[in-house]
Amino acid sequence: xxxxxxxxxxxxxxxxxxxxxxxxxxxxxxxxxxxxxxxxxxxxxxxxxxxxxxxxxxxxxxxxxxxxxxxxxxxxxxxxxxxxxxxxxxxxxxxxxxxxxxxxxxxxxxxxxxxxxxxxxxxxxxxxxxxxxxxxxxxxxxxxxxxxxxxxxxxxxxxxxxxxxxxxxxxxxxxxxxxxxxxxxxxxxxxxxxxxxxxxxxxxxxxxxxxxxxxxxxxxxxxxxxxxxxxxxxxxxxxxxxxxxxxxxxxxxxxxxxxxxxxxxxxxxxxxxxxxxxxxxxxxxxxxxxxxxxxxxxxxxxxxxxxxxxxxxxxxxxxxxxxxxxxxxxxxxxxxxxxxxxxxxxxxxxxxxxxxxxxxxxxxxxxxxxxxxxxxxxxxxxxxxxxxxxxxxxxxxxxxxxxxxxxxxxxxxxxxxxxxxxxxxxxxxxxxxxxxxxxxxxxxxxxxxxxxxxxxxxxxxxxxxxxxxxxxxxxxxxxxxxxxxxxxxxxxxxxxxxxxxxxxxxxxxxxxxxxxxxxxxxxxxxxxxx
Length: 530
Fold this sequence. Notes:
- It is built from 24 helices and 14 strands.
- By secondary structure, it is an alpha/beta fold.
- The strands form four sheets. It has a five-stranded parallel sheet with strand order 4-5-6-3-7, sandwiched between helices.
């Protein structure tokens, strides 16, 4: 038992039943007499090992019947059972067996957590939904909690804080309960909880994980300040919103704790690891069968390295040996994203305000891969305040702006945006706010009877004018049209319609006001934007 405690870290809970702990530790009284008898029957080395083991047990914090419960055995049993259950609940969080490509993340996180500083360390893990932030935090937590007496992993902070009554208070109760290893304490309100957490943390070296935090205030009410913790404590925060981590960094700098904060952004999975993760869920092996190799690679390519999608798709195709069904499902995935994936990714979209949502949907449908300067002209005209909006999208890991100033978006986030727009009207593209498929765009333009003059087209020809049914407009490379249609309804609601025929480089603004000129003809105003 003592060897297991020393070599494997297993817990020992000594129960001193009608005996004093000091007698066990020093081998006095009946223990002294027992060892004299053992020395006559066994060799000296064996007896010494027993003496050392008993001395070790006597030095551990345990339960003494008389001191703990005044001799009441039933109460002592309840106390011991409660403590054991708390210890069993503390140690590990569940991590899937099918982990892939985790070594690099563990290596980077270990480097950030363990440096020359012996102070409190806060590590923020940020990135888009489904990138694996929670899984990384769980793996690190499971490795470290063995070395810490006081541990707590609070999962789903955002959801519990916002969507449950007294959510933050309940989270504070869980935190105090797990740190002090007691039943849920009575906490009146959030301020009372902060005071109880400070008292619980005092003088204790802890490891705490706050998972899926989306506001700085949530961190403040659960982990507060570095001064609450003993040196060498570790706090890990996962978030989709980098604004939370930026605020934490500013706080640490203001307090002169320059070494206290670090951040980590996981990268997307490589093609090799993506195929391996998909195969573990689809085939229960590290690679697909040879005759499913090409199909598997095509399915994996739709995930674009996002672990969440690979797990969902692997589970979707598991046990399915019909290749025609694989091909049909693949065609469906290329047009309509998986609902389970969309549900997880939509969490990042919902907190945006209306202006930010509009910019996100524009990028998803029309401007991925384009210089951000181009759509900013329109967004400025619409009073969407694009610079602030794009900055928010970047901080929330929804959009990236490359060194070449081009807007980038993960394929799954792009598909999320397009599906949100498609849901505006599943059957009529003309009734959606944005149209990005060329064939649908042409049909919408035909229905609108829009006449677009050729602008800056060095090679117009009759064929291009008649190629799409003689609708009276030319098509040239890289055209996007923005139509503002004032609908003649009682509420005078205006509808924005973006139409992408190819890729956005030349942008035309068409105002279809429905007004008539003096000759009774409808008037179309056309303006070319830079």
